[in-house]
Design goal:
- By secondary structure, the protein is α+β, with helices and mostly antiparallel strands.
- Helices cover about 30% and strands about 20% of the residues.
- It has 14 helices and 18 strands.
- The longest helix is centred in the last third of the chain and has 23 residues, at about 425-450.
- The structure holds flavin-adenine dinucleotide.
- Flavin-adenine dinucleotide binds near residues 35, 72, 111, 144 and 315.
- Flavin-adenine dinucleotide binds next to β3, α5 and β10.
Length: about 475
């Protein structure tokens, strides 16, 4: 759907408290840029919203003018879903306020806040909610699609900790969704993506975390990758329930704690985070160190906010990226063989495979309790990410991602893939992520709140009867 913008823009400007930017405005190019440097889409207008009223005015204007709508939270979707071509982009980046009710252990978080904003405000009080592993990610898209991070096994997904949301729906109205207010909408927001409206405020339950946490970083070079992945797979089951962990095939960073001989060397990293005492963390990391002594063995206390920002430079804003992911119920020896064969074929030193082991609180939630696209019995979220400094380097590793993913696919669980790790939102993969029963339930809710599928630049749920 494309349209030319008629003379109503001044009317929109008059109704909004935030600015409305067009191609002639100085801030336009910065406002339309997203995390993935490969995305170069040009909306006709960018409405930088400062309130739910602004969002409602922008939606109504766009619908009256026949303009496609995109919604920008943190701008992290690899495919650039936040930006439309020739349409109206609803830019939530100024809605980044976070307030904390310490007594109630609740945070109210603007729909355009980043994880860094959320962590900074909650950690002032020694509290946190599950976030992702890169702090410039938007709370909006992360929460609406699920939200995996260091705290998933302790607290569940980010969306599991959502207790209410304020939403501007396709008819421009502001609603509050919670277990007792529009409960169908509330259910759908916890995993169903940005399909149901523009969330201007998320309200999260918080838990005491930090401020000091414990990191263990272990690395094995490529020639022991198979043994390392097997040992890690076996060690994950023995980790304490609340520990965080991440496995990654990557090139070792040139960090001070990595001996120079391993700087930029490909291999396997295992990161274990403890949220309790140093002694408990030391006990948690002991088995993996004993089974297969790592080439790099580093343990340190650090502030929780530093943990949340530790990997930011591995995927900086403006880098070129492509990804494809799948869920594994089991990380079998055969799947490990595929990884060992496929991983070294990448060409960009920045490309890597972040693999999230999941269990604990994630698995405590019933499959139908939230709209999250994936089974709670999944044990591994396996992402293959091409990250490169320019389009040419990305092109080579885009093919690497695709063939690696195809080779791993026979070992995947039946529940498709995590919608937040999709670039293209292919309809069959979105359906597979939710499964038929959940997809149909979401489609009925979509038909109630967005029957014309106004919000479709997302892992799209087609309204039933559409
Ligand atoms: P955007 O591109 O702004 O939005 C993504 C989608 O959500 C769009 O469809 C948009 O319209 C919609 N949306 C965003 N905000 C709102 C809102 N307030 N109301 C309605 N719709 C909205 N995921 C994890 O689970 N764990 C990780 O550790 C993790 N790490 C990542 C690291 C990097 C470097 C990147 C690029 C992504 C990572 N992700 C991770 C994936 C991330 O969760 C998704 O890309 C997510 O969609 C980002 O949300 P966003 O608001 O930044 O993105």
């Amino acid at each position: 759907m494309t349209a030319t913008v008629s003379g109503g823009v001044e009317g929109l400007r008059a109704r909004m408290s935030g600015p409305v930017l067009g191609p002639g405005d100085l801030e336009y190019d910065t406002a339309r840029s997203v995390w993935n440097g490969e995305i170069d889409k040009r909306p006709a207008l960018i409405a930088r919203c400062l309130s739910p009223g602004d969002v409602g005015a922008a939606i109504t204007f766009a619908r009256d003018e026949g303009l496609e709508i995109s919604v920008r939270g943190g701008g992290h979707n690899f495919g650039g879903a936040a930006v439309c071509v020739d349409g109206l982009m609803i830019d939530l980046s100024a809605l980044d306020e976070v307030t904390v009710d310490v007594g109630a252990r609740r945070a109210r978080c603007g729909g355009g806040a980043t994880l860094a904003d959320l962590d900074a405000a909650t950690q002032e009080h020694g509290l946190a909610v599950t976030g992702g592993t890169i702090s410039h990610t938007g709370v909006g898209g992360l929460t609406l699609g699920g939200g995996f991070g260091w705290l998933t096994s302790r607290l569940g997904l980010t969306c599991d900790n959502l207790v209410a949301a304020e939403v501007v729906t396709a008819d421009g109205h502001c609603l509050r969704a919670s277990p007792t207010e529009h409960p169908d909408l509330f259910w759908a927001l916890r995993g169903g993506g940005g399909n149901f409206g523009v969330v201007t405020t998320f309200e999260f339950a918080l838990a005491p975390i930090g401020p000091e946490v414990h990191l263990g970083f272990f690395f094995w070079p490529l020639d022991s990758a198979r043994e390392a992945l097997r040992a890690i797979r076996d060690a994950v089951d023995g980790l304490p329930r609340g520990a965080g962990s991440l496995v990654a095939c990557l090139n070792a960073p040139p960090a001070p704690f990595v001996p120079e001989q391993y700087h930029f060397s490909p291999g396997v990293a295992f990161l274990i985070v403890g949220f309790d005492s140093a002694e408990e963390h030391a006990a948690a990391v002991a088995p993996i160190r004993a089974v297969l002594p790592p080439a790099v063995d580093f343990i340190t206390p650090m502030p929780y906010t530093a943990l949340q920002q530790m990997l930011d430079e591995s995927t900086p804003w403006g880098i070129f990226g492509y990804e494809k992911a799948l869920y594994l119920d089991e990380f079998t020896d055969a799947a490990i063989d595929v990884v060992v064969e496929q991983f070294p074929r990448k060409t960009s030193p920045m490309s890597f495979t972040p693999i999230f082991p999941v269990g604990g609180a994630f698995g405590d939630v019933a499959d139908q309790a939230t709209a999250f696209g994936g089974s709670r019995s999944t044990r591994w979220v396996f992402n293959i990410a091409a990250v490169a400094p320019d389009a040419e380097a990305l092109a080579a590793d885009r093919e690497w991602v695709r063939s690696f993913w195809e080779a791993l696919r026979p070992y995947a669980g039946s529940a498709g893939s995590y919608v937040n790790f999709m670039v293209d939102f292919e309809e069959d993969r979105v359906r597979a992520a939710y499964g038929p029963a959940k997809y149909d339930r979401l489609a009925a809710i979509k038909a109630k709140y967005d029957p014309a599928n106004v919000f479709h630049l997302n892992p799209n749920i087609r309204p039933s009867g559409h």
